[in-house]
Design brief:
The chain is an alpha+beta fold. The protein contains two helices and eight strands, in the order ααββββββββ. Strands 1-2-3-4-5 form a five-stranded antiparallel beta sheet, with helices on one face. A three-stranded antiparallel beta sheet has the order 6-7-8, with helices on one face. β2 and β3 form a beta hairpin. It starts with 10 loop residues before the first helix and ends with a strand.
Length: 137
């Protein structure tokens, strides 16, 4: 006499479940690592800003600081200003235009020491960046 009493899972059901779970885990772990990794876009934009300022000063005819604004006179006698506008840094040429260079800043300081330009930035997240730019002139 065989009692037909079925309890538990069959071997085929267990193997199929393990196969599906292993496939799901294979694709989900790399996706989870993407979310865990920090993004460096804010830092990259600040370093690009520093390089941009260095390049503008290297190609300029003259530069000076006027009321926390960097004024650059380029080789075609255009007056380029770089200043803080609310929480952004903007670039204007001859008083017109509104090119955003950096966003989300809580503090921006530009000062001149000898022939060097000192820049200090603080993001809204609280990170502070400093750069000394050496002028060839």
């Amino acid at each position: 006499m065989f009692l037909s009493h079925k309890e538990g899972f069959t071997l085929a059901e267990t193997i199929m479940t393990l196969t599906v779970l292993s496939i799901l885990l294979t694709f989900s772990l790399p996706i989870l690592k993407i979310y865990e990794s920090p993004t460096y876009t804010a830092e990259m934009s600040i370093f690009q800003y520093f390089n941009f300022i260095q390049d503008e000063i290297n190609r300029s005819r003259d530069w000076r600081i006027e009321k926390d604004t960097l004024v650059i006179i380029d080789n075609t006698d255009r007056r380029v200003t770089i200043s803080q506008y609310n929480q952004d840094i903007r670039r204007q040429v001859n008083g017109s235009g509104h090119e955003l260079l950096i966003q989300d800043l809580s503090f921006h300081l530009i000062s001149q020491k000898d022939h060097h330009l000192f820049i200090e930035l603080r993001t809204t997240e609280g990170k502070t960046y400093e750069k000394i730019i050496y002028s060839p002139k």
